[in-house]
């Protein structure tokens, strides 16, 4: 089955289309600001790479740590109220970033932004699962990711253009994107009832924590997010060294643009020939190779080539992770499973943000910049090995990933 034919067979309800538009706005708003935090505070104000990494890592850990509870609460209330509250909180957090002139103020605003993400992250995935079917779910998650990557293309370009005015202008524009997303959510996404009819919904977390296979999978995959978060830290810092502050626009545009163009057909093609376990291991391996190759990149063009390899690996990881999570979770605990699963991004992203800053500073002090990239390569290879140990070989056939022969009920 060709990717083009598969796409013509995919009919989506309006609520899913609205969630995809929201994903575009949310990623666009996010990537307007995040790359410029490194540029504005690291290069403009002279903060250390460790300080910038600590701010980014704190936001990441706050968001993914609270996502556990946001997902569990959505099992009780339904996803939409949590998403709405999260969007409003994120808007306030990013607006506050524009007013920050000190490390404590920036740290506080990043925590507020992280709280917002923790409220809407897992409920958003639970809403996608509720509005999709087992037959089209992997393709829907791929399209959601493509919409987000399109925002990742547009956001940095808008941010770079507005940065000529002031960082405050960029932050306020980003906040407005989240407010528009809130309006679309309330107008176009239908209410989705909670699946937990009694209690607070937090009891579902105990069930997830006892699922040793899923917990091991989540912890192992955090190694990949140590790698992926480097686009905001080590890769951005290196790009600015090679090509100046405006390098962030082309850098993010390339990474996300490749995902917009290739993610859907690549996921379909990979799903026809490999299991989900193999796809996940291969994606992490390619990302590790892309970062490791940056040790040999001494020009901006070479850095972009390595970033393309990083993007190629990453574009198959998200939909595969989300589809595996949906298959592992009982239907009544989707939010709880997606919430705990987000810890892989929280732990890996927080560690990666700090580790990236430490490695960059240490590499400079030792006059050995390759230290950063070789260390990240080892992290990636260890993650591939861990996934091979934590996921059973029979997990998700090629037909499951392509969406052609998925059973009516997920086991």
Describe this structure in words.
- The chain is 80% helix and 0% strand.
- It has 411 residues and is mostly helical.
- The protein has one domain: MFS general substrate transporter like domains (Growth Hormone, Chain: A), CATH 1.20.1250.20.
- α3 runs antiparallel to α15 and α4 packs antiparallel against α5.
- The radius of gyration is 20 Å and the shape is globular.
- The N terminus and C terminus are likely disordered.
How do you describe this structure in short?
By secondary structure, the chain is mainly alpha-helical. It has helices at residues 3-8, 14-44, 49-77, 79-98, 103-131, 137-162, 167-188, 204-210, 212-228, 234-243, 248-273, 276-293, 300-328, 334-341, 343-365, 370-390, 398-402. The chain is 80% helix and 0% strand.
The CATH homologous superfamily is named MFS general substrate transporter like domains
Shape: globular
Structural class based on helices, strands and sheet pairing = mainly alpha
Helical residues, percent: over 70%
The CATH topology: Growth Hormone, Chain: A
Give the H and E element order: HHHHHHHHHHHHHHHHH
User: How many β-strand runs?
Assistant: 0
Mean pLDDT: 82
Indicate the radius of gyration in whole angstroms. Answer: 20 Å
> Major sheet, described briefly?
none
Number of domains: 1
Instruction: Specify the CATH class.
Output: Mainly Alpha
Record the SSE blueprint.
Elements lengths: L2 H6 L5 H31 L4 H29 L1 H20 L4 H29 L5 H26 L4 H22 L15 H7 L1 H17 L5 H10 L4 H26 L2 H18 L6 H29 L5 H8 L1 H23 L4 H21 L7 H5 L9
Helix pairs in contact: 2-3, 2-6, 2-7, 3-4, 3-5, 3-14, 3-15, 4-5, 4-7, 5-14, 6-11, 6-13, 9-15, 9-16, 11-13, 12-13, 12-16, 13-14, 15-16
């Amino acid at each position: 089955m060709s990717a083009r034919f598969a796409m013509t067979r995919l009919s989506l309800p309006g609520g899913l289309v609205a969630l995809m538009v929201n994903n575009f706005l949310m990623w666009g708003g996010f990537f307007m600001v995040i790359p410029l935090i490194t540029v504005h505070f690291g290069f403009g104000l002279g903060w250390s790479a460790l300080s910038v990494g600590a701010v980014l890592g704190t936001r990441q850990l706050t968001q993914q740590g609270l996502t556990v509870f946001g997902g569990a609460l959505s099992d009780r209330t339904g996803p939409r109220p949590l998403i709405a509250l999260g969007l409003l909180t994120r808007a306030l957090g990013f607006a506050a970033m524009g007013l920050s002139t000190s490390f404590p103020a920036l740290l506080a605003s990043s925590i507020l932004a992280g709280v917002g993400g923790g409220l809407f992250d897992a409920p958003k995935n639970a809403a996608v699962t509720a509005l999709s079917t087992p037959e089209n779910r992997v393709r829907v998650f791929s399209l959601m990711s493509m919409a987000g990557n399109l925002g990742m293309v547009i956001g940095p370009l808008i941010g770079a253009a507005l940065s000529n005015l002031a960082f405050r202008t960029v932050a306020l524009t980003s906040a407005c994107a989240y407010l528009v997303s809130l309006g679309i959510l309330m107008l176009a996404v239908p209410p989705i009832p909670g699946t937990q009819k009694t209690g607070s919904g937090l009891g579902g977390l105990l069930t997830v924590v006892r699922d040793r296979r899923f917990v091991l999978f989540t912890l192992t995959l955090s190694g990949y997010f140590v790698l992926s978060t480097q686009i905001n830290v080590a890769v951005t810092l290196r790009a600015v060294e090679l090509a100046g502050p405006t390098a962030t626009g082309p850098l993010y545009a390339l990474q996300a643009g490749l995902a917009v163009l290739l993610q859907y057909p690549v996921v379909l093609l990979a799903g026809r020939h490999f299991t989900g376990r193999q796809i996940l291991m291969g994606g992490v391996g390619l990302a590790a190779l892309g970062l490791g190759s940056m040790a040999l990149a001494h020009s901006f063009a070479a850095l972009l080539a390595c970033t393309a390899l990083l993007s190629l690996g990453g574009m198959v990881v998200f939909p595969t992770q989300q589809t595996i999570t949906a298959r592992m979770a009982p239907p009544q605990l989707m939010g709880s499973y997606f919430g705990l699963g987000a810890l892989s991004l929280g732990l890996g992203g927080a560690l990666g943000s700090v580790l990236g800053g430490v490695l960059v500073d240490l590499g400079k002090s030792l006059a050995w910049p390759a230290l950063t990239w070789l260390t990240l390569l080892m992290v990636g290879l260890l993650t591939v090995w861990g996934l091979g140990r934590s996921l059973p070989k029979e997990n998700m056939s090629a037909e499951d990933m392509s969406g052609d022969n998925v059973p009516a009920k997920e086991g």
